[in-house]
Design a protein that fits this description.
Rossmann fold; six-stranded parallel beta sheet; about 200 residues; alpha/beta; two-stranded antiparallel sheet
Amino acid sequence: MFVEPHMPRAGKAGWIEVICGCMFSGKTEELIRRLNRALIARQRVEIFKPVTDQRYHEQYIVSHNERSIRSTPVQVAADILLLAGSCDVVGIDEAQFFDDAIVEVCNTLANSGKRVIIAGLDMDFEGRPFGPMPHLLAIAEFVTKVHAICARTGELASFSFRLTDHDERVLIGERDKYEARSRSAFLEGMQERKQKKPRNA
């Protein structure tokens, strides 16, 4: 389990923590746990998520296990700088859906002395690095990769397999559209999809 470092002294730089993994791996659950601990410690916390993520609630971050914490939906990453104010801790969920400016936003926040905690998918439905996540992983002081359980094999899962035929990179969904898979089950599913796809597609 991740143990929080001590908050920096006034005037010192903060840091960046990234929680990554596939769908249903507990990323948001871990984000909420860390943010709640900061609240218990009476730290000032601001939490953000992309406005496009309204699967459970417009304003709350909600995990698959239905734990929740209030957040502020934002259109673009730059809005976070405007709204973070004088808080001690900034939480950001579904970071893969933000524009590339999220990297500089997180650096700016950490450089100003804030603890920045980010959660997001590290890979998309084709197993490719997702959006700004590779850059966030590179600049973070602390990285936690969490795993789900493969829906097919029962092994540890690191991949999010899309159950529908939609090809767009961003498709918000739950267990009706995705399942967590191990590498072998993911590759098997991708091969089956390739074989079913029309040759002129």
